[in-house]
Amino acid sequence: MSGIHSKSSKTVINDGDADTGNVMLDISEGLASSLVDPSKTGTNKTINTPAVELNIQTFSPGSSNGSNVLSVRGINMAVNLEALAKDNNGSAAAAVLILSGMEGLLSDRFFKTENQTVMNSDIITAFLPKTNHSNFSQPVNFTIQHKKIGDPPPPNPFLEWLNRVGVIIGLFFFALAILTFLLCSFNAKINNTARLHLCITLALSHLLLLWNDRYTENKVACKVMAGLLHFLIVASFWWMFLEAMQLFTLVRRLSKVQVIQKDGLPTPVLYLIGYGAPFVTVGVSALVFSDGYGATDAEVCWLTTERSFNWALTGPVIALLGVSILLY
């Protein structure tokens, strides 16, 4: 995104530092205009200092070239001053100005845009000093040189290897836990459903984490991957909540002298809550903003931060943790 300031249109919101920035630019334009003498034949003035870079060109009767290119700090403005001078008593002037540090005052946060805005060039002021008429019969072309953004650091093979080894070890222990809950039920009155499916959802989400950076080029596959990962992570928190509720119910029963019954909610109800609630969460999220799933800036298939879509995960997690703290 490039910043161009002119008197004829205001692009920034007039609050905060934007007022200061506009005042500084207006003062600078006034000072630059004092350097223009319409009586002189076409001139080309350039000022280069650490704080200011300015290029002023004028056209008056007798000038040899009416098509002018003004340049400051690699930024060019091509304007036909001869055509402009025809409506301005035969003379016209144009100027391009850059004040160092203006991006700190007129930063990207002052721009009203629906998408994410990034300031990727200097703040440019283009104006017509001592030129009363500004009806352009020909277009004015700007060539803006974006600032160089450093290349992202190269991936660290050791960290990638360490991450994958850690996930694989985690999957191994999840597999042991799943086999334990499936095959080693010592008491028929103990319901291991929540523990079992907590391990299953966590294991599957870890498994997807091994591959969620492999499908970023395939838009549909990446959306599906991100949606599945969202579903499994939300489901794991629901199963943790259900397990906490099971344990809370069991502890309450232990405080009373009574015949031990099978603890917790019936298994069908656990399935309905454990997988139904995450399904509703992901379904509603996809209906509201389907583009929220896909490749992110980190080059993985996950939830975008655009339109605060990441709250589709953060919101349910905070709600479940809050309810757990209040109840238990």
Question: What would you note in describing this structure?
Answer:
It is a multi-pass membrane protein. It is found in: Membrane. Its main location: membrane. GO terms for molecular function: G protein-coupled receptor activity. This is G-protein coupled receptors family 2 profile 2 domain-containing protein. There is one protein chain. The chain has 328 residues and is of the alpha+beta class. It has two domains: 141 residues, Chondroitinase Ac, Chain A, domain 3, CATH 2.60.220; 171 residues, Rhopdopsin 7-helix transmembrane proteins (Up-down Bundle), CATH 1.20.1070.10. It contains seven helices and ten strands. The chain has a five-stranded mixed β-sheet with strand order 1-7-6-3-2. Strands 4-5-8 form a three-stranded antiparallel β-sheet. The longest helix is centred in the last third of the chain and has 36 residues. The N terminus is likely disordered.
